[in-house]
Write a structure and sequence with these properties.
43% helix; globular; alpha+beta; 7 helices; 4 strands
C-alpha cells in the first residue's frame, strides 16, 4: 500500500501528470505492475491509476485474466476502475483513502449514485437504437466455435 501511496504522491503532487491516484498489482507476493493516474499527461479520461496498472499487469503476464492478483489502490475505486478490476478477475482490492476523503475534488460517489438511477433519471441520457441489428451480431457470435469469450 505504501508503494501505491508513493506513486499517488509522485503523479499528483510532484509531476502533476494526473490526479493523486496510484495502484499496485501483486501476484504471488511479487509486484507485477505499479502505475499512477495519467489523465492529464495522456489527455485520456480513462487513464486512471487502476486501469493503467491493470493494462501494465496484463502485458507483464501476457494474459487478460488477472485471477489470483491483489490490487493495492491509494484510493477507493471509482465505478470505472471497479469494473475494470471485475473484468480482469481481480477479486481482492485494498485501498487507503475513501471517496469521502476527496469528494470535494473528484465525483466518484456522484458517478456511483448516477449509475444506480433509472434510465430517465440518469445524468447521461441513454437511448436504445438498432437493437435488432446488434442482436443479429450477437447471434452470429454465439455460433462461433472459438469465440473470444472472457
Amino acid at each position: 500500500m505504501r508503494h501505491a501511496i508513493k506513486v499517488m504522491r509522485d503523479v499528483g503532487v510532484v509531476k502533476k501528470s494526473g490526479g493523486p491516484f496510484g495502484a499496485v498489482i501483486v501476484k504471488h507476493g511479487k509486484v507485477i505492475a505499479a502505475a499512477g493516474n495519467s489523465v492529464i499527461r495522456d489527455n485520456d479520461p480513462s487513464a486512471h491509476a487502476e486501469v493503467n496498472a491493470i493494462r501494465q499487469a496484463c502485458r507483464a503476464i501476457k494474459n487478460w485474466d488477472l485471477s489470483g492478483c491483489v490490487m493495492y489502490s491509494s484510493c477507493e475505486c471509482c465505478p470505472m476502475c471497479y469494473s475494470a478490476a471485475y473484468w480482469a478477475n481481480i477479486r481482492s482490492i485494498f485501498y487507503a483513502a475513501s471517496w469521502s476523503d476527496y469528494e470535494d475534488l473528484f465525483p466518484d460517489r456522484a458517478i456511483n449514485d448516477d449509475i444506480r438511477r433509472s434510465l430517465p433519471e440518469k445524468e447521461i441520457r441513454m437511448q436504445q437504437i438498432l437493437q435488432s441489428e446488434a442482436q443479429a451480431v450477437w447471434a452470429e457470435f454465439r455460433r462461433l466455435p472459438d469465440g473470444a469469450r472472457y
